[in-house]
Amino acid sequence: MIGPWIAAFLTLAIFSYLYKDNPFYKVAEHLFVGISTGYWTSMFFWTQIQPNLFGRLWPASEYNPDTLWYKFYNVLGIFNSVFPDGGINKGHHMELLYLLPFALGVMMLLSVSAKLSWMARWGIAYTVGMAAGLRAYGFLNSNVLGQIKGSAFQIFNSDLPFFALASESIFNNFIILIGTITGLMYFYFSREHTGNFGKLSKLGIYFLMISFGASFGFAVMGRISLLIGRFVDLITYSGSAYNHATLWLLLAMILLLGYSAFSDKNTSENKSTLD
Amino acid sequence: MDKIFDYILKAGAIDRRWIFLIIGLAVLLPLFFPLGLPIRATLATQKVYDAVESLEENSKVLFSFEYGPSTKPEIHPMAIGVLKHLFTNGHKVYVTCLWPDGQFMADEALAEVAEEEFNLTYGEDYVILGFRPGNEAVVKGMVSNIRKLYTTDARGTLVDEIPLMNNINKVADFDFIFSASAGYPGTTEWVQYASDPTGVPLSTGTTSIMVNDIMPMVNSDQVQGILAGMPGAAEYEALIGSPGIGTSGMDAQSIAHLVIVLFIVFGNITYFIELQRSKKY
Prior knowledge:
The structure holds two protein chains of two kinds. Chain A is an all-alpha fold. Chain A has eight helices and no strands. The model of chain A has no long low-confidence stretch (mean pLDDT 91). The mean pLDDT of chain B is 92. In chain B, strand 1 (60-66), helix 4 and strand 2 form a beta-alpha-beta unit. At the A-B interface, helix 2, helix 5 and helix 7 of A face helix 2, helix 4, helix 6, helix 8 and helix 9 of B.
């Protein structure tokens, strides 16, 4: 029962910023940041570090309390929820190679120390290098080659109508062709944008502006959808099943913000009188 | 005429909080008094529907949840709609999450659709593999070997003990991928690292703001259609004949857009009046 009251309060607290910055908004903002960080850290640890890293270093399938490796593990057993008795049973075999990413991860955490922060560079360098290599292929294949392939279509396709508003047509093919070429011309800076070249690159700007306009329209649509989502929840929580949570909280907030505005006004008036 | 212009300029200088209030009312009132405006599926939505329809019965569908509470109103209705369509056609659903809060969304959507509406069995008809951090590295890992990445599902059960996971070792073992995406990592990463290299068809549902980024991939057939924000969800609900949250929000969406367009027109009129007067004097 308390969940909907908290949800309604936090939603109204965020909306209260539209009036002006106030303590309700600050509370909601700080809670959001804190809870998000806590949730992310917890998820990261329990879905990756514990099962996939520790689970590979000390797997239950190869548990042997007589070895030095597992004796060390049993010492760690004071944190029983992370290092349970008999090894970690997440379906892995022992892979000591994972000590390397473990060490790099620890080195990244050392960035908090002024003396040892240089070690963090190794971990970051590995991550950046790996990510760059990983992304280069995917980007080249899908965003460059895939798009070039996609724009290499038959303009005069006899199966298509000459003009259609909401489907493929020969007219649309022309628009794509002209838009792509003139758009690319705008980003060609090795030649001065004058004469016919300048006119075509200007046409490219218009295509870009239409694209930005569409992006703006979609952005507005997205924000309105989110507003609808919050309003739907607030309407739900205003029902008798939730003891009219939204209405009571809204009333309390209006009264408190109103009182605060009234007090501020009186204080500033007194101050100006004294001055 | 000058008096009218003065009124327009005066109205154009109102406190912005009045505009917030008007937009709020434009969204709120249609939720209380629905107008029932017609919903017609666009070509992009129809493509998603056709892609799901073309799957043979018992197809294995990888469904990725890449959104959280902040984008739930846009993506959740389409996730519900697509899940309903998949289960109605008798497909098996494997859920992964590239976002940590995606797991919450997946739990909620499957509890509503798979358990309550279709009464399906976990582990036999659907499975939630859960969240793994690593962004595109997770997608890449799934393409090479899912079992290396997922040894347990979201409920802690060993993957080897889940009947639905038999013969599932990599992305290429799936017949279809659906990405319910609100940003990075999401649809783009699935296209780049899973669908394009393996040839497994992929459809997506995204937030409105992502549509312009993904649409070129739809036009080049790298993505089989796109559900564009809440309207996309409403169109999909209309296609499967199951009106839901998406449909109920469309009246508010339309009215709010109308009001915003009017504000933009009004803002431009005041701009041109001011421009004209500054030239005059």
